[in-house]
Amino acid sequence: MAFTICRIQKIKSWGALARSEAHTARKVYTPNANSQIKNLEVVGNCDNLDLEMKVRNKIGSQKYRSDAVLAVEMLLSASAEYFRPNATYEGGNYDKQRLDDFVEAVVKWLDNCWGDRIVKASLHLDEITPHIHAYLVPLDERGKLNCKVLFGTRVKMYQLQDSFANAVEHLGIVRGVKGSVATHTKVKKYYAAVNQDSQLLDLERCIPQPQAQETSEAYRQRVIKLLSPQLEVINQQLRERDRQNQKLAELKQTASVSEQLRYSLEKELYSLRANHSRQNLSLSEVAYELGLNQYKQDDNPLLLVMSVNKCNFDDAVVWLRDRFGETGMTHAVSKSALTIARQIQESIFTAPTPSPNHLLVVEDYLNQKHSIPQKLLKSLQQRGLLYASTDGNAVFIARNLDGGTTGAYLYSLKNSEHEFSLHPASKRSSGWFHLSVGGANRGLIETAVLNSSPIDALKIMVRNAPHNHRTLYLTLDHENAPLPSEFLKTLANVVVAMSEKRFMSIRKILPNAIDVSKYNQQQPSY
User: Where are the alpha helices (DSSP H) in 94-194?
Assistant: First the structure.
């Protein structure tokens, strides 16, 4: 069985990039490579620029951190069983059709997943096992140099391995077991050792004769120096063999568990199919049980029982359970509820009635009690996000990320124990109180600051002014509040200005989230 090989090496300096290219482009002597065989460029060979210029052109004039990852070197291959299925140990040989299929699949994967982020990729045929070296500039969706977004977490690395395995799966190459405890070997060490022929030590030839007047320690050090390169290769190959054996054992275990799961699912499916007719309780069955020969075809089973038996809802539910079991009863009740819901038009949120007479009181309270500037309060009123209601409450409007109004939070100026309440017509889980500022009010959002209440959002915003780039302040008023995770995953910074417990729960969903105290230490303002 052939396994995928996908390794990455992060490159953080121009010197390291030059050394990497010197090696992969064979500008320096490579002991384990056959100098008579020419490697092939499969991506990026049309502009005749060196690798450094390709990377610099892709990064452009943007500013980046001194320790930023400039490029990522990928090593993409498969175990020898794929390239030479009938001669695994005959290094340097490969089946041409299998190689062509592999290269086509890899180049297609690089283009589909990374597009023009790939500035160069070359096929190496001068070593024991064919493999591809690809260089990627880690730009995020905003075009910023941001390796963390692409490869910064264990989940991202799992996704990378899954994606590559899916791309070559049709060739009969499989992914190793996810979560395996097998150790990770760095790119250079891996292919330098595993691609070499199996080593056999000829001790008569390898161990030198002692020299005249040579001490035992000097002789010992000379033997170690002579044998170390071959022993390193042998050790790497033994470790690779152990890794493959462990993978095989894990796959066998996974196959056994999967077979048990398949058997369990088949039993459950059989049971569901057996009960399918009972789940789809028909009106005719209910009418028959009620002793009716005639009934309207558009009648509802539950309502029909209530009408004929002249009983209330609870009694009708019990009657259905006694005749058709809990499954049939559940189907009848859910169908009745669906019918009622479809007959009534979906409610549209209507915000509380504004009261200009109370507005000045609300402004003075928020300004004096919470130190929110009058200018900011006026701006919120102009944007329709804050006003006073007829009962003197401060009204904070909740919206979805598209700007549609979904509800309102009422802030009482009198009740200090329960300051915030939800307007009855609000759809709480459909939106949030949020607003974005900074970046000259244009451009894409770079930072999101998650907070616990509209008041907290405004107070934190005031403390962080001025804002160097566009920042979103979004309120999660409860631990059950929905998190717009798909949107937040696209941002460079997600800052959590809430309790440690809330921060840890959010961190499980957004591994890139950072506590506000740590973020403030990194940079003076947002």
Answer: 96-114, 147-151, 154-168, 187-194
Q: Reduce the DSSP state of residue 320 to 3 states and report it.
A: helix
Sheet of 118-124, strands arranged across? 40-43, 118-124, 131-136, 71-78, 2-11, 173-174
Radius of gyration of the chain from Cα atoms? 34
**Under 8 Å CB-to-CB from 2, ≥6 apart: which residues?**
78, 79, 80, 81, 82, 85, 172, 173, 174
Looking at residue 203, its amino acid is: L
> Shortest CA distance to 167 belongs to which of 112, 99, 117, 248?
112
**Average pLDDT per block of 10 residues along the chain, 526 residues long:** 88 93 88 83 80 92 91 92 77 85 95 92 90 94 90 88 93 73 48 52 72 87 78 74 78 80 76 55 86 79 90 92 87 80 74 90 91 92 92 92 90 72 88 87 82 94 88 92 90 91 91 85 60
Type of residue numbered 240: E
Pairing label, strands 513-515, 420-422 = unpaired
CA distance 303 to 309: 10
Query: How many angstroms separate the CA atoms of 455 and 396, rounded?
Result: 9
Angle, vertex CA 254, rays to CA 252 and CA 255, nearest 5: 65
Residue the block writes with tokens 């064919």: 130
Dump pLDDT digits (tens) for 261-320: 887 887 777 666 655 444 567 888 888 888 888 888 767 888 889 999 999 999 999 999
With helix as H, strand as E and coil as C, how does 10-70 read? EECCHHHHHHHHHHHCCCCCCCCCCCCCCCEEEECCCCCCCHHHHHHHHHCCCCCCCCCCC
Determine the Cα–Cα distance for residues 5 and 77; give it in Å rounded to an integer: 5
Give the per-residue pLDDT at 424.
85
Q: Nearest 10 degrees: CA dihedral of 255, 261, 263, 266? A: -130
Q: Which residues of 441-469 are buried (b: 16+ CB within 10 A; e: fewer)?
A: eeeebbbbbbbbbbbbbbbbbeebeebeb
Q: What's the CA gap between 268 and 264, in Å, rounded?
A: 6
Q: How far apart are CA 6 and CA 246, in angstroms?
A: 18
- How far out from the chain centre does Cα 502 lie? 20
- Which single residue is written with the structure tokens 């699912």? 265
Q: Which amino acid is at 408?
A: A
Half-sphere exposure (CA, 13 Å, Cβ side) for 276? 6
Place of tokens 């005639």: 294
SS3 519: helix
